[in-house]
Hints:
By secondary structure, the chain is of the alpha/beta class. It has helices at 13-30, 45-51, 57-65, 88-98, 122-125, 166-181, 197-213, 224-233, 245-258, 296-308, 313-328, 346-359, and strands at residues 3-10, 36-40, 68-73, 103-109, 129-135, 147-150, 156-159, 186-191, 218-223, 240-243, 268-270, 275-277, 331-332, 342-343. The chain has twelve helices and 14 strands.
Amino acid sequence: MSRRLLLLPGDGIGIEIVDEARKLLNWLVAAGLADLVLEEGLIGGSAYDATGTPLPEATVERARVVDAVLLGAVGGPKWEGLDYAVRPERGLLGIRKALDLYCNLRPATVFPQLADASTLKPEVVSGIDIMVVRELSSGIYFGTPKGVETLADGRRRGFNTLVYTTDEIERVAHSAFQVARQRQRRVCSVDKANVLEATELWRQVVTEVRNRDYPDVALSHMYVDNAAMQLIRNPRQFDVIVTTNMFGDILSDEASMLTGSIGMLASASLGKAYALYEPIHGSAPDIAGKGVANPLATILSVAMMFRYTLGSPEVAARIEAAVSRVLDSGLRTADIMQPGMTQVGTVAMGDAVVQAMGEG
Ligand code: IPM
Ligand code: MG
């Protein structure tokens, strides 16, 4: 039976990179390797322009009936002046919340061909294999009260609330420990328990879950400031990192730089009932429309979709192998360009991956 995918290109380079993912998906269908029906929807600034909201109800409804969602990126300077409630980013946060996507898997691995492309020394980054498990549907991103108010004396006061309940911590902790069982069985939980009460609770609950259900997995704890330092000092010490929404946002961008470029990092946002796949990078307004964006993070997100939702690990592995062979052949987008390699644009990189699929 056909599986249904909803493509949400969004804004900026989101449109260009999802074009390359669509090309790959169509190739997989034509080659008989997947039985997919592709649908399209609106999210972000482009949805706001078309409908007055960054997350049309139709998008949520369709996301709930398909097997998986593939999202490009949202946001851009055009919409920065808008009220927070209708900013493009609210579309992304809104769909994460609406689908209850609490577990965001952000793998940071270095393709050996790109060990030189990182700003860190190759001997520091080569061989890293980190899975950041970011809580995605709660924390300071969603806590209330929040807003900007004007005080009696005319000063303005901005405020957000960091909030976690035990069940929200437990379920993402379970995800992290289960992921760790497929890997090196080591989880590092990152918090700021020395200052923030909500993350002191985080530390306690993660420890309880481990002691009760995962005695075979090693658990350590790290404050987020130290974790930020350790990630560039000695990234190979990490296997699975589990952390809050905002710390995960920050640390996963940092981890991406170990891999050479944020343009390489895929992600899966999973809930009990729904799944959404997206590159971890943003809409990159500075290069949008120029045809130079790296489509590989989105293509690797498609691989994750085959592995986690579509139940075809062999297709996932084939996509990853195709990406690896394209890198072997010396093709590079601007963000991962290295001396002696051949610089190509978004479309040529997508074409090369499809061609490599055909050969593999
Ligand atoms: C990410 C992005 C988003 C986030 C933005 C675009 C709202 O930075 O997916 O990491 O902060 O979660
Ligand atoms: Mg981010």
